[in-house]
Amino acid sequence: MKKLSMSAKVFLGFGIGIVLGMIFQKDILFVKPVGDIFLKLIQMIVIPLIFCSIISGIASIGDIGKLRRIGTKVMGFYIVTTILSTILGLVVSHIIRPGTGFRMYDIQASGEAVKAAEPMSVGSAILGMIPSNPIAALAKGELMQVIVFAVFVGVTITILGDRVSNVKKLIDEGTQIMFKVTDLVMQTTPYGVCALAACSVGEYGLAVFGVMGKFIFTHYMAALSIIVCLYLFIVRGIAKIPLSDFFRKITEVWLVAFSTTSSSGTLPVTLKVVEQEFRVKHELASFTLPLGATVNMNGIAAYYAVTIMFVSQVYGVDLTLAQQASFIFITTLISIGTPGIPNSGIVLTVMLLGTMGLPATIMGMIVGIFRPIDMIHTALNVTGDVVSTLAVARIENMYDEA
User: Fold this and answer.
1) How confident is the model at residue 108 (pLDDT cuts 50, 70, 90)?
2) How does the protein's chain sit in the membrane according to the entry (predicted)?
């Protein structure tokens, strides 16, 4: 068992859970607390992980002048592509409707229909983002307030520079600690997945698998839509790079992204390809790509969109346009705070479902088949970093001459 990769262990736990659910059916529900503990552990690490990673990512810029000029353009591309990725994910989910035809309710539910959280007005949404007490926001898990406070702290650290180098070092070390805590929590994934899968199959039977296959298919169609409708337009229309050259040179990055499922882990290869193959100046690539590996998560944004629509359809919840607009706004903020490490999307999905007023019970099934989903969305993440960098390089004329 020790020689197996985590993905193999998760698939094994998933398979064992399915078999146990088929054999014992509803009698297997006594293992439900194991799955609940797993979900609780995930919820435990969300707030400190987001808080530290956002501050560390912004503070890593270091130069406020660079942040104003090039950073404004880069962040503009990152934010716009994240928003459009979320919208495309929602559109594809509306077309395919992966959760339609399957209904799932919490075991402890009273029989009442699940209701999504009511959307806030623009004014109240903006006001609700600003914490009157940052410590209370951290304690209560007010996600948007924590993100806003973290952004202010990160920008301030960048402005003050060396005067607060010890604080920056502390935050960086805190981020590494939270990455390790996340890794430790994710080591329990096979057991949590086994329990949750067993309970899902025991409660609802094998019908759950048809809907999960459709769920995976929806993610890949959303990814294809983002590449065709968004990335290729930027590459050809703004970066002015022939599509044949782009696909030939980006393939190496995709292979590493697929294998590592980590934007940060793919970063060395991404830097090499962008600088040596696309001939972007080191000054730009060394700034935009590490920043993108931290804050530009187009693939994760699409994942959140498809997953939220899937869960809402499974629970029979019709999200209004206002709720979906609110979701796009929240997703953009959360995507910026998603660490570029494997399985980080799982951690934040639980919090996002809670923010939207949707149950997280089905997350056990999603975790079990997360690897093929994570592969395509990691590839989208790093491709978004590359595409945005190429566009800014063209605008700023920051290509090395051949």
Assistant:
1) very low
2) Multi-pass membrane protein
- pTM for this model (two decimals): 0.68
User: How would residue 238 be classed by pLDDT, with cut points 50, 70 and 90?
Assistant: very high
- How many whole angstroms from its chain centre is CA 61? 22
**Residue 253's pLDDT band (cuts 50, 70, 90):** confident
- Look up residue 116 and give its DSSP letter: P
* Distance from C-alpha of 282 to C-alpha of 194, rounded to nearest angstrom: 46
List the structure tokens of 354: 């809670």
CB neighbour list of residue 244: distance below 8 Å, 6 or more residues apart:
none
List domains and CATH numbers for the chain: 7-396 (1.10.3860.10)
Q: How many CB atoms lie within 10 A of CB 276?
A: 12
Angle ∠(362,182,333) on CA atoms, nearest 5: 70
Q: What single-letter DSSP state applies at residue 119? A: P
* 371, 214 Cβ separation under 8 angstroms: no
> Nearest 5 degrees, angle CA 294-CA 250-CA 255?
80
Distances (CA, A) of 369 to 68, 256, 303: 41, 20, 13
Q: What distance in Å separates the CA atoms of residue 92 and residue 382, rounded to the nearest whole number?
A: 21
Query: Using CA atoms, how far apart are residues 326 and 330, in angstroms rounded to an integer?
Result: 6
- Mean pLDDT value of segment 365-376: 77
Question: Which of the four pLDDT bands, split at 50, 70 and 90, describes residue 208?
Answer: low
116's CB contacts (< 8 A; 6+ apart) are 312, 317, 319, 323, 356, 357, 358
Q: Specify whether the CB–CB gap between 190 and 10 falls below 8 A.
A: yes
Is pLDDT at 187 greater than 60 in this prediction? yes
